[in-house]
Structures are given as C-alpha cells and as structure tokens.
Design goal:
With about 170 residues, the chain is mostly helical. The protein has one domain. About 85% of the residues lie in helices and about 0% in strands. The longest helix has about 70 residues. About 10% of the residues are buried.
C-alpha cells in the first residue's frame, strides 16, 4: 500500500471521527437524556459504526489498521477542541432559518385545514342545537330528579368500600 493511500485512509478516519462526534452531539442535544434518547443514541452509534466501515471499505477495501482507531479518536478530540462551536452555531442557524419557518408554515396549513373541516361541523352542531332546543327543559328536569336520587343513594353508601375500617 502506498503512502498516499494510507494518508487518504487516515484523513478519512479523522473525518469520520469528527462527523460521528458531531452526530452524537446532535443526537444528545435533541434527545435530552430521556430513555428514548438513550435508545436513539445507541442506534446512532450503530449506524455511525456501519458508516465508518463503509468509508473504510471505499478508501481501503475494508482493511482496518490500529491507526484508524487513533485517527477516529483524534477526530473526536479535534471536534471537541475546534469544531464544536461552529457545528453548534450551524445547528442553531439551521433550526432558526429552516426548521422553524417550515414548522410555522405546516402549523398554519394544518390549522387552515382544521378550520375548513370545522365549518360544516359547526354548522351541524348549530342545527342540532336548534332541533334539540324544545327538549332542553324536560331533559334538565329529569336530570335534576335523577341527580337528587343519586345523591341520596351515595349518602347511604360507605365512602370508600375498598378501604379497611379503622378500629
């Protein structure tokens, strides 16, 4: 293997270390230490390992060397010391300039659809209220009488039948 291929492999592993650390940082930031976040982080580690092997396979036909591990660890340290702030700034900018407006647009579309769907439902509700208006007084009278009987029955029952009586 010639030196240029080894240097290319070393730089590729260094880049995978930086990008893997950035991806894990993003997953940890998004998941926020929840149980689902832990599962998500484990899945991210698995996918990143597969991706790193894919890069290694593309660069050197999958031959792994010890210095590949050192290059990935160096990439991790390089991210923490140099690239952490720019990546986080880029993440905030993406969230502010792309994701937030897209969320607001989708929310507006969703609310518009719900409003349009709600017009016939409100119309049906209005018509039903008009049709059921003559039955309102008899319904209230029956409900009032049944409520009074239910209160009498509840007074006779023990407060909590599952609770053990105190001596």
């Amino acid at each position: 293997m010639i030196v240029s291929q080894q240097l290319l492999g070393l730089l590729a592993m260094l880049a995978t270390g930086v990008l893997a650390t950035a991806a894990i940082d993003a997953v940890r930031t998004a998941a926020g230490g929840t149980r689902a976040g832990t599962v998500l982080e484990l899945a991210a580690w698995l996918l990143l390992g597969i991706a790193a092997y894919g890069v290694l396979f593309a660069v050197r036909d999958g031959e792994w060397r010890f210095y590949d591990l050192l290059a990935q660890l160096s990439g991790l340290l390089l991210y923490e010391s140099v690239f952490c702030r720019p990546f986080r700034l880029a993440g905030r900018l993406i969230r502010l300039l792309l994701l937030r407006p897209a969320y607001l647009i989708l929310r507006g579309v969703f609310r518009t659809i719900l409003f349009i769907i709600g017009i016939p439902l409100r119309l049906i509700r209005f018509v039903l209220k008009l049709l059921l208006r003559p039955f309102r007084r008899p319904y209230r009278a029956v409900r009032h009488r049944l409520g009074a009987k239910a209160r009498k029955i509840r007074k006779r029952l023990p407060r909590n039948p599952l609770k053990k009586p105190t001596i």
